[in-house]
Amino acid sequence: MSFALMFWALTALAFLGGALVVLTRDVTRLALGLGAFLLAVAGFFALYGFGFLALAELFVYVGGVLVLVLFAIMLVHRAKPGAPALEVRHDVLAAVACVGIVGFALMAFGQMGAVYPLPSSAGPSELGELLLGRMLPQFELAGALLLAALVAVVAVSEGGSE
Amino acid sequence: MTLVGVSVGLFALGLYGVLTRRDVVALLASIEVMLGGALVLLVGLGASRPDGSSIEGLALIVLVVVAAEAAVGLALLVAAARSSRTTRIDEMTEVRD
């Protein structure tokens, strides 16, 4: 399958999932849309040659964050009868602001080109050397941030149960 | 141009969700869409550079930060929903009042 065909298929999947997230009233469809969107993002990573990043996206987001979202939906909406409905309040000003941002960004960054960049040749070994070498401080900082987030989640959850 | 258009379009779609949604679950999911669009742009533009692994490392750290943000945000949502009995952001007025 050609690069362009895959690119546009993933683009369609990402926009479909994103539109479900933004427009649907049903939380189950929202979670499904988020899953489709995250799968499309992982597909983009794989398409551009970043296989490890695609796997990380799959494990961390589709396998982790999406399950977390589903658990949060179950915990939060369990007391309400029937299918929980989410309100969608369409706003012309918000739409105009978003279209303006798209136009501004295309004017500002449109010349950056890279219509179809070549897939990267970087492999997992290069990434490992980078993360445990030049980017070691950032890598350790990210680990510390995850630990702090874990402690914060426990603290927030305990505080809420009192 | 195409990659920039797709990424910015996804970012704007998520931004529209952030501006129009009032339920915290939908807000957090819309923020994920915004960040996903930004990540696609980062990775897509970085793929054409010779040092692609550094972009991969940067994107990996962004993934970690976003995952931490989602975890803390959802924990805050559950705690706030327990105390205020609502998931609508405009009805959570304890801090404001």
Describe the fold and architecture.
- The complex is a heterodimer of chains A (162) and B (97).
- With 162 residues, chain A is mostly helical.
- In chain A, 75% of the residues lie in helices and 0% in strands.
- Chain A contains six helices and no strands.
- In chain A, helix 1 runs antiparallel to helix 2 and helix 2 packs antiparallel against helix 3.
- Chain A is globular.
- Chain A starts with a helix and ends with a helix.
- Chain B is mainly α and 97 residues long.
- Chain B is 77% helix and 0% strand.
- Chain B contains three helices and no strands.
- The longest helix of chain B is centred in the last third of the chain and has 33 residues.
- The N and C termini of chain B lie far apart (47 Å).
- In chain B, 59% of the residues are buried.
- Classes of the chains: A mainly alpha (162), B mainly alpha (97).
- The interface between A and B is large, with 88 and 70 residues.
What is the distance, rounded to the nearest whole angstrom, between the alpha carbons of the first and last residues of chain B? Answer: 47 Å
C-alpha geometry of chain A: globular
Instruction: Identify the quaternary structure here.
Output: heterodimer
Could you describe the largest sheet of chain A, including whether it forms a barrel? none
In the predicted model, the low-confidence regions of chain A spanning at least 5 consecutive residues are: none
**Unreliable runs of chain B:** none
Q: From the alpha-carbon coordinates, what is the Rg of chain A to the nearest angstrom?
A: 20 Å
Report the β-strand fraction of chain A as a percent range: under 5%
Q: Average pLDDT value of chain B?
A: 82
Order of helices and strands of chain B: HHH
Instruction: Kindly name the structural category of chain A.
Output: mainly alpha
Question: Structural class per helix/strand content of chain B?
Answer: mainly alpha
Q: Assign an overall shape of chain B.
A: elongated
CA radius of gyration of chain B: 17 Å
Task: Provide mean pLDDT of chain A, rounded.
Answer: 80
Distance between the termini of chain A: 56 Å
